[in-house]
Specification:
Two copies of one chain form a homodimer. Chain A is built from nine helices and ten strands. With 291 residues, the first copy, chain A, is an alpha/beta fold. Chain A folds into two domains: 172 residues, 3-Layer(aba) Sandwich (Rossmann fold), CATH 3.40.50; 88 residues, Pantoate-beta-alanine ligase, C-terminal domain (Pantoate--beta-alanine Ligase, Chain: A,domain 2). In chain A, helix 6 packs across helix 7 and helix 8 runs antiparallel to helix 9. The radius of gyration of chain A is 19 Å and the shape is globular. The first copy, chain A, starts with a strand and ends in a 12-residue tail after the last strand. The interface between A and B is medium-sized, with 30 and 30 residues.
């Protein structure tokens, strides 16, 4: 496994792989890798000749009062994991190399970035889009893999790729969950046992919505009222939002139909967690039984 | 010469050329081609195996009160010219293909885009950067060629390419001028003979500055006062700005030294024209005779 520290070396490596006619699969991460990341890596391994994983805790996507400093970092553990997954190259640049002095170029997907997460994390997706585009330019992937746990991120990056005519396929991979339902997240490492137990209320509320939808309920307002109650009743948990929106425009919808999702964010023990459940357009839901 | 109308066909053509190991030189234009454009094409021809020219009057870089509708268009004449220059492919997509419904991704080079031209054309460089990035993603150039006539555009695109780690070399080509000094511009076609004569005051004012600098003058304020008078004395001409700035930050400077430029914009007969003269860092000027 090649360990690459500088943008120049990454660009040279990518150019060399492309020249040899091989395809590149890319998994951008912020490190502190868990099973969810490894699911992405295995998907990339299946789809591409050469797999690149980047590890970069991107300061541009953290707000001034967010957890950039305390975001989990474990480069030694990450490298061990990636090596055992037969990753071809890992790219872990420094902040200074990705944002040198005088850096001033930003990419924004207007209209989608301000919704859901964007209401609580202004500027977050601008930082995400910019670093992902920069990494694409260095890694030259044929396909890039993103988890559906960060559904809004996936939707925005797919939109950016389409809009900018990026020559890369954006692949979404289903959320990996712990046996008890908790969505895989690097931030889970920061939870105490007690907080971790409380945090389960978010996946439980989403699971409740999924269950009710599978039984034929489609009324958003009613579903959300009961799901929010599940979270409200959990001690030590603050609900930031829980909404049901369409997965193209991210606007609230009145009915759960194919192409919508329920998504939410909570704060527990000083840790912010997100999760969602998607009702895909190609999966029949109760709302369109005849369809 | 391949005539390409759709983004898909352009992407396929570029991928095919890259696979064959050939380099791509790219000249993005808005058409109504003149000798200045052909200078760029010839430079590309010298540097690359496969030369692509795009023709697209980009609506996103025109303000609501600007000349998008009246901007000169001459696709038949353009194709004839490019064919005789042995261009390999010309890409001229429609507006709908470049900005399909729901388009919402924008690239911005903060801090540089608001200065000089940006004061009079808010949003202009956001439109420029976005279309250039989109075209780069479709054409996959090894090198792209821009005229120094649009100096601020060149500086901003070079900054964007550096910041975003774009795998493309941005090459600046000196301004092509008519024998009487008028800088080549598609908009010159819209000038009557009389307005064209008046328009010369801008290149004359810039030439005055260059002359005085070559004679050892470096005081910006004094140079600009006299140069602005040249334009003020010309009938039917409105000066929008004439400034001397450094070519990295585009901030006004007190002295003309290597790495600065004088740049201005005028309105004449309803046509807006720009021009500049650069004092490059690698060309000795009076201000740093010993250097």
């Amino acid at each position: 496994m090649r360990q690459i520290r500088t943008p120049e070396e990454m660009a040279a490596c990518a150019a060399e792989v492309k020249r040899s006619g091989r395809t590149i699969g890319f998994v951008p991460t912020m490190g502190a890798l868990h099973e969810g990341h490894l699911t992405l890596v295995r998907q990339a391994r299946m789809c591409a000749d050469f797999v690149v994983v980047s590890i970069f805790v991107n300061p541009a996507q953290f707000g001034p009062n967010e957890d950039f400093a305390s975001y989990p970092r474990d480069i030694e553990g990450d490298l061990r994991l990636l090596n055992s997954e037969r990753v071809d190259a890992v790219f872990f640049p420094t902040e200074r190399e990705m944002y040198p002095e005088g850096y001033r170029t930003w990419v924004d997907v207007g209209g989608l970035s301000e919704k859901l997460e964007g209401r609580f994390r202004p500027g977050h997706f601008r930082g995400v889009c910019t670093i992902v585009l920069k990494l694409f330019c260095l890694v030259l992937p044929d396909a890039a893999f993103f988890g559906w746990k960060d559904a809004q991120q996936f939707i925005i990056i797919r939109r950016m790729a389409t809009d900018l005519n990026l020559p890369v396929r954006i692949v979404g991979v289903p959320t990996w969950r712990e046996p008890d339902g908790l969505a895989g997240s690097s931030r889970n490492r920061r939870l105490s046992d007690e907080h971790r137990r409380h945090a389960l209320c978010l996946s439980r509320a989403l699971h409740f919505i999924r269950e009710k939808v599978s039984q034929g309920e489609t009324d958003t307002e009613s579903l959300l009222a009961r799901a929010r109650r599940i979270i409200a009743e959990e001690p030590g948990v603050v609900l930031q939002y829980l909404d049901i929106v369409d997965i193209e425009q991210l606007d609230p919808v009145a009915r759960v139909v194919p192409g919508t999702m329920a998504a939410g964010a909570i704060l527990v023990g000083g840790v912010r967690l997100i999760d969602n459940v998607v009702f895909p357009a190609d999966e029949p839901t109760a709302g369109r039984k005849e369809g």
